Amino acid sequence: MLVGLVTNAVSDESRWPGWLGWLQEHAWFSFVVLGVTMAGLTALLAGLSETRPPTPPGRPEDGAGPGAAQVLRSLPRDTAAFTDRAAELERLVGSVRASQERGEGLPVHVIDGMPGVGKTTFAVHAGHLLSERFPDGQLFVNLNGHTPGRTPVQASEALASLLAAAGVPTQQIPVGDDVGAVTEARAAMWRSRLADKKALLILDNAASYRQLEPLLPGGSGCLVLVTSRKRLVANEEVVMSVDALPLDHAVDLFVRLSGRPADALGRDVVDELVRLCGCLPLGVSLLAARLRHHPSWSAEDLRGRLVAARDRLGELRAGERAVTATFDLSYRDLAPERQRFFRQLGSFPGTDLDPHVGAALGEVSVVAARRHLEALYDDHLIDEQPGSRYRLHDLLRDYARGLAAEGDSMDHVQAAQRVCTYYVAALVVANGHIVRSGAAVPPAPDNASRVETPALESRADALSWLETERANILACVRRANGLALYDLVVRLAAAMAPFLRQAGPWDQAVGLHRTAAEAARHTGDQRARGDALAELGVVRRFMAAYPQAIEALNDAVTAYEAVDDRRGKADALNQLGIVWYLTADNEDAARAQTEALALYRELGNRLGQANALADLGMTHRQMSRFDAAVEAQSEALALYRELGDRYGEANSLRDLGVAHCLMGTYDLATRHHQEAFDIYLELDDRVHQAYALNELGVVRRLTGDTEGARTAHSQALMHFTELGERFGRATSVRHLGVVERVTGDATEAIRLLVEALDAYRELGSRGGEAASLSELGVARGIFGERDGAIEAFQRGLEILRNLGDQCGEAEVLNHWGVLLLTSDEPPAARRHFDQALTLARDIRCPLEEARALEGIGRCDWTIDGPGHGVTSLRAAATVYRRLGVSAAADDIERLLVPRSG
């Protein structure tokens, strides 16, 4: 099977997801022993802004193995200052309770109202009150419908985040270039996931019903609360408008938050204060905080300041003027250094931030940034999010951006430069934990030494940080591109590439690398353009978009040649070789890998040499050049061991096991597969454990241990099903079909083989299709369906010849010969066995050689009478004994016993 698959155009950890594409095209070998045949978020939902995509199919080399389903609690913290809303709460809770008691589906509840009125606070408070009614989880997603400077979250992106956060293995989350089709597929999966669940979903800040409709669960037991500034119109909804607080409630909130006795404030003055800010909770909270932080002020002092600020901001719309006036009052009360820090927060293109980002924006230390953020939170100018992160309310973000625009016109550009530089430096630290040893990683910027980066001590730390910051980093790429900061665009894209390669979704990575390639074109940096195009080619290969992958990689080679970048050219050639291998262009694949290997050797790049050798070995094996395959793969294995690259070592061991199995050295094949399995177990890589189990099962079946084979394939099937790895699951089903046929249940064998065949065709795997057809022909022959068996053999043989898989071709010819012999057509059968014998000897495939010899001997025995064909039969028995296939040898010897006597 896949060994050492894959190389990377820029960073070698990209090699791992590539196994899927390889597997989809590989002509999986199968064997016959006289009728015995063997045809492979936790997303940051609170404050989600752009995308939380899934992790791609492939080995979890990043350590982020598929997560199990879990009960999620991602609601923001409930506020202790929540005031009344008793009528609205009673209506909402009553509506939910009534629907549940009647056993009816829960309607969507839409909470609308003007900015600052407390829609989100109300929804979160209601969510906490109702949480016990929804034990399967409570999720919060910010859709950024009205966030200044932010693009509303697309439904497909939000669905990817929800699915990943709900525990869906990333391999199951659909990706593709057709956004509409991807959205539909993800929505269907989301509905299925929650079909029998009781979960609560808050969709905050929705722009339109069209944006949120695909996110709605299909099950009747889920509650969806939507907040929006717009009055969304749709069927079967409960619409709840949240208005400004009644005067008495607004006064109560002010008194409570001011920390002063009501009688010391003066009711008339407090009435005027809350009226001036429109009785909006956000404005009331800010005003009360101002008074609490100024013990020497009276309520009258605060009123005078608010009136002055409100007059200054009079050009604003009436609805926003009152609240914005409270912002201005709060802002002017800050110390100058904190005012500057607050202005810089408005330049952040992301959604939520931590002290490290704050430090980069504000040009201060992390300690100082943390102090500023905590103070701004105390002043109600920012909100606290889970994980010691902070977020600006949309109106406050807009206000901060307006303040920045009043000052230095270049201030927002400089802030973007600083935060992008910070992320590049932090990504260098994270990549140090997730890329393979010896892989190239983008260097830190020259001024990175002045940047404080987070303490990421392990792979788990790095992956957690990357998941949290993903949307923010991609938002920074867009902001930098919009400001023509092309060098930073290129650096960020290159630094994000290793993570996106592993975590996906690949359609998002395609957009990022296209942007980077265009940015590099603007700067005239051909090397950077080559890097971006090579990454684009790698991702396109993962998506099985092979023509687009070849185009991008050829363009990358051209770009590297223009600047004499031999390392980049070698990487791109290595990737081109893999794509050609996947499309069965074996001669082109071997040529590309050989050229890449020569370049790596000139450069002294040992990891590159190992990768090219491993991929060259696979190409030789696919061409049935087994000796050359073993030689190349053994050299790769030695290099991987020198480098301490455990994944490379395991993959080379596994591919050597496949080659030795084809060559009939089953003891060696078993040892290699077991060693590979043990390493995958050590690395907690369940995907590759499953592939190793399938290979072990093959060897067990060929050596007569059918129950051991069944156990191994069943374990592999369980892993693949849990992980959502469709190709591996199809291969396990096919192997189990062979086991059923060998143990005498042809009906079940046909059912399983048809299932595998359908899956391979859906995946576009020609090799898997051919292997299934070969096995299906045998099973149908046993069942008496002669015409159906021959049709399957013909179609399978055609595919195998196109793929250049001579071993598979010899196997089908032997199968076909057995069918003809048992159908009383020995002359035709002998012709098939003769062809199989020639092929098997040419490629040194002893098992197929033995089967062909046995078939020839039995044909001669039948045609010319007992005693003829003995030489061929004895030669077959000798090979069988050498291979350890005792059952077949025993059958021949029983046939020859009377003759010997």
Please characterize this protein's 3D structure:
With 901 residues, the chain is mainly alpha-helical. Helices cover 65% and strands 4% of the residues. The protein is built from 38 helices and nine strands. A six-stranded parallel beta sheet has the order 1-3-4-5-2-6, with helices on both faces. The chain has a three-stranded antiparallel beta sheet with strand order 7-9-8. Strand 8 and strand 9 form a beta hairpin. Helix 25 packs antiparallel against helix 26. The longest helix is centred in the middle third of the chain and has 24 residues. It starts with 18 loop residues before the first helix and ends with a helix. The N terminus is likely disordered.
Topology, please?
Elements: H1 19-25, E1 72-73, H2 86-102, E2 108-112, H3 119-130, E3 137-142, H4 155-165, H5 179-193, E4 200-204, H6 209-212, E5 223-228, E6 237-241, H7 247-258, H8 267-276, H9 281-292, H10 299-312, H11 318-332, H12 336-345, E7 352-353, H13 355-362, H14 366-378, E8 383-385, E9 389-391, H15 394-406, H16 411-434, H17 459-482, H18 486-503, H19 506-523, H20 526-542, H21 546-562, H22 566-582, H23 586-603, H24 606-622, H25 626-643, H26 646-662, H27 666-682, H28 686-702, H29 706-723, H30 726-742, H31 746-763, H32 766-782, H33 786-803, H34 806-822, H35 826-843, H36 846-864, H37 870-883, H38 886-900
Parallel strand pairs: 1-3, 2-5, 2-6, 3-4, 4-5
Antiparallel strand pairs: 7-9, 8-9
Helix pairs in contact: 1-22, 4-5, 7-8, 7-9, 8-10, 9-11, 10-11, 12-15, 13-14, 13-16, 16-17, 16-18, 17-18, 18-19, 18-20, 19-20, 20-21, 20-22, 21-22, 22-23, 22-24, 23-24, 24-25, 24-26, 25-26, 26-27, 27-28, 28-29, 28-30, 29-30, 30-31, 30-32, 31-32, 32-33, 32-34, 33-34, 34-35, 34-36, 35-36, 36-37, ...
TPR repeats: 610-643
InterPro entries: NB-ARC, P-loop_NTPase, TPR-like_helical_dom_sf, TPR_rpt, WH-like_DNA-bd_sf
Domain NB-ARC: 99-255
